[in-house]
Structure formats: C-alpha cells, structure tokens
C-alpha cells in the first residue's frame, strides 16, 4: 500500500496537527484517512505523528509492503538512516515509527514535493482548523470499502453473503431514488443546501416527466418519502399524483448537506474566498464547509433513513425524493465504493436510480441516473 503523510505547526512550535492517507497502489483509491490535532508542537513532531498514523492504518488493513511518501526531507532521511536524529524530542517518535516498520515485509521511504502531498496536507490543516473551532482533537479512520480491502490485501473480509444465485424466496425493499427537479440555483451551478428554493417552470415539467417514469417502473408503490425542502416535496407530490396519490411523508434525514457560508455561492466564488477550506473539504468527507456539515454526517443520517425504510417496507417499493448529495452517498454505500465515487458520479436533476435491499443484507443496484424521460424537455 501507499502511505502519504504530513504534519504542520502554526508557529513552530505552535498549534499542530497531522494527516495521513493510505491508498491502493494500483488504483490510487483511498483506503483510510487519519488526522488529529496534537496541541502545541513543532512541524517535525507533527510530521512524525503523521507517519506513525499512516503506518498504523496500513498495518490494520493488512499491508505487507508499504511505500511511505512525505514532503519532509528530514523525516525521510532520518527513517532511511542517512541523517542523525539529533533532537531528543524526535527520538521516541522515530523509535515508534521504526517499531511499526518492523511489522511489514518491506517499507520504502520516498520524498515527494509538497504539491504531490496535498491530500495529507489538507487533512493536517483541517485537523488544526477543527481544534481551533473546539472540535475533538482525534479523528477516526475512514473505514475502507470491503471490496477495496479485498483487492489491496488479497483477503476476503466477512461481508454480506455474496452470490450470483437469484433470490427465489426473499423479497427485497425497492427504493426508487429521485433527485428533485431543476431550480434557479442548479441552473446557475450554485451550492444549494438548506436554502429552500422552489422549482423552476422547467423543474415542474421535469417532475411531471419523472412521475410518468416512476409509474412505468413501479406498478405498485407503498410510500413516497421526501426531503422536507419544497423543491423535493413538489417533485414528490407530482410523483404521488401520478401513481395513485399516496400521502407524501417527509424525513429530515433526507435533507441536503448544509453548505454553511458557501450556500448560494458558485464553486468559483468559494475557490476564491476559501481556497484552503475548499481543498480540505474536497480531500476528505469528514471535513465540513465553514459553519456547515460534512459528508460523513450526511451519510450517517441518510443511512438511518434507508435502514428505517428497509424495516418499515419489507418486500415493497418506496419512492425517495432527495438531493444530489444524499443520493450519491446512498449509492456509494450500496456499491461499496470509495469516496472518489462521489466526485465521479454525476446525477442530473430529476434523474432516477433504483436499488433493492434484501433481508439478508444484500444490495442490488439496478439503475443509476436514468434521464431518458427528460429527453424532450
């Protein structure tokens, strides 16, 4: 596996933090992230702490051979034995790192330019920012997708039963996931989170077309569940009217991510005004926009909503009308994909996705971002 590690201090010594990323060497996919603020320390101490965290994470994932990449020349040279460790405060950390090195068959240390270590650097800065805001110092590791761990380590971790056999007796809960129709903010490509913006005229036409598509996909629907924001409720009501008018129930856990002070702004405006915060947010699902909500938090609540629907409607079909972030996160988890999936999947307004959830924990994704019903709009 590949480890990318970094640390920093605002003052040297000063408020410090570290970040570490473990990647699949073939695909570059993130297997784990570690970050923490460590109080007052020097840059070098923070850098060693980042290396230690990365080695620990790689060991937990079952890595046999590791390439550790850092932009700290000092740490790389000291770990390779080419430079003496003169500072007494670094010797215990170097010894701890060396002990972890002994757990692998081979470890290679590589110096890289800072621009090639941006992910770990962003995690370290996010940890320092979180500490300054009063958040807990330690950040838990990102759990790696089971399929990714199996590919990277050659193991077969225990997950839900895997089989190509058709399920003859088990009836799954089918979720038809619908993104709301167009709004002015989607047209202008602005962050649209908790702001309650209405559908445009075209958005209402999209909702009607989506309702017809849902009626084709599901002759019988047990429930229509929606985010409480009006753009979703209006889309859900259009669907309900087409399929027999079941009542539309709202669920707060299906609401869009809270983008905080980025709400209503374009990506370019955010890049200009908050470049460091944006890099940290793009680098990790645990990082929230200023005064906003992280994707990790969104995933937790959408997961709760999906679990409730699985339990409440066994063997039935439910239409779920939500926003781009919650639907992406549901599909990410259904496909056991990594966080890079969130940046690679595009979901159109009024697009339709379908997944089945089985009683044994199995999941089948049957459709992603179907937009054929919108071709004439």
From TrEMBL:
Q: Where is the active site?
A: 180 (tele-phosphohistidine intermediate), 256 (proton donor/acceptor), 256 (proton donor/acceptor)
GO terms for molecular function, please?
nucleic acid binding; phosphatase activity; RNA-DNA hybrid ribonuclease activity
UniProt-listed CDD domains: HP_PGM_like, RNase_HI_like
Binding annotation for substrate: 231
Q: Which GO terms describe its cellular component?
A: cytoplasm
Pfam family, any one: RVT_3
Q: Can you name this protein?
A: Probable phosphoglycerate mutase
């Amino acid at each position: 596996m590949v480890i990318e590690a970094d640390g920093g201090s605002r003052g040297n010594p000063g408020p410090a933090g570290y970040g570490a990323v473990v990647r699949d060497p073939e695909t570059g996919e993130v297997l784990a992230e570690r970050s923490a603020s460590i109080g007052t320390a020097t840059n070098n101490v923070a850098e060693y702490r980042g290396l230690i965290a990365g080695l620990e994470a790689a060991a937990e994932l079952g890595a046999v051979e590791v390439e550790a990449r850092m932009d700290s020349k000092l740490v790389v040279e000291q770990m390779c034995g080419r430079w003496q460790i003169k500072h007494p405060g670094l010797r215990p950390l170097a010894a701890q790192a060396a002990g972890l090195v002994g757990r692998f068959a081979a470890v290679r240390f590589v110096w890289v330019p800072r621009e090639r270590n941006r992910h770990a650097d962003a995690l370290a800065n996010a940890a320092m920012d979180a500490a300054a805001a009063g958040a807990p110092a330690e950040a838990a590791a990102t759990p790696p997708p089971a399929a990714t761990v199996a590919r990277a380590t050659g193991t077969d971790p225990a997950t839900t039963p895997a089989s190509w056999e058709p399920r003859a007796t088990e009836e799954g809960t089918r979720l038809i996931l619908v993104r709301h129709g167009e709004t002015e903010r989607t047209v202008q490509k602005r962050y649209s989170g908790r702001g309650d913006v209405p559908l445009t005229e075209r958005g209402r036409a999209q909702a009607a077309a989506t309702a017809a598509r849902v009626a084709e996909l599901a002759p019988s629907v047990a429930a229509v569940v929606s985010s409480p924001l009006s753009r979703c409720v209006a889309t859900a009501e259009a669907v309900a009217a087409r399929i027999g008018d079941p009542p539309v129930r709202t669920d707060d856990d299906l609401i869009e991510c809270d983008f905080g002070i980025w709400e209503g702004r374009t990506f370019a405006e955010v890049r200009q005004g908050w470049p460091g915060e944006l890099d940290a947010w793009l680098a990790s699902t645990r990082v929230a926009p200023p005064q906003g909500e992280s994707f990790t938090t969104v995933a937790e609540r959408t997961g709760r909503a999906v679990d409730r629907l699985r339990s409440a409607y066994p063997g039935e079909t439910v239409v779920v009308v939500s926003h781009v972030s919650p639907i992406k996160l549901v599909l990410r988890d259904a496909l056991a994909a990594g966080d890079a999936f969130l940046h690679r999947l595009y979901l159109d307004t009024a697009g339709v996705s379908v997944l089945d959830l089985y009683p044994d924990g199995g999941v089948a994704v049957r459709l992603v971002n179907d937009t054929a019903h919108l071709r004439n709009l």
